[in-house]
Amino acid sequence: MPILTGPRLMPRSGTRPRQLVVLLHGFGADGNDLIDLAQEWQPLLPEAAFVAPHAPEPCIQGFGRQWFSLTFRDPHERWRGVNRAGPTLDAFLDAELAALGLRPHQLGLVGFSQGCMMALHVALRRERPVAAVVGLSGMLVMEEGRGPESLAPQVRSVPPILLAHGDQDEVIPVDAMFLSAEALATADVPAEWHLSAGIGHGIDDGALHHAGRFLAAGFARAARPA
């Protein structure tokens, strides 16, 4: 199983981390592409550590990394991809939590594009729910040829989920966000969503603002006594 590495940022407070935010980049990028988001969210999350792992494979485009290959010629490649890469990411999350002495509910996941696919796939199948999942410009990957009802038996935990998407996305059309939210609802997994007007396949200030507040609220809820 590949060992993931990537850039990190320790808590702004200078103290021991009380939360961990893992940032999952998109196809053809690497962890350096997202680690700067940590600086945007540090004022809201001063006790959080951030890590942006590089995906395990060199990208087939010849630059950057990929969680799995995307040729867009095989309708099953996304489903096979998230299932193949999922255990590597899951093991990385467990190792990072253990290294920091944190519990599963002190973890937040943020994924962009292909990283969003990975974040949603893995978070729903972890034994314990994470504090929050933010999916940016991505989608929930479903098994090709099966309806959303097929998701429910695979869900092991229900984390808070925020989906954000640009309404002019030319790579993953905005309909993917609404279809993902509907599929999650079918499996009794509620999701909030944010639509960025006039934005393509990217992250604007509005999405950053909502995502940061969503992460902070998720950590606050998870810290309350049961």
Automatic annotation (TrEMBL):
Transmembrane segments: none
InterPro entries per UniProt: AB_hydrolase_fold, LYPA1-2/EST-like, PLipase/COase/thioEstase
Organism: Methylobacterium aquaticum
GO molecular function: hydrolase activity
Keywords carried by this UniProt record: Hydrolase
Name recorded for this polypeptide: Phospholipase
Alphabetized Pfam families for the sequence: Abhydrolase_2 (PF02230)
Domain spans labelled Phospholipase/carboxylesterase/thioesterase: 15-216
Span of the signal peptide: none
Family membership: Belongs to the AB hydrolase superfamily. AB hydrolase 2 family.
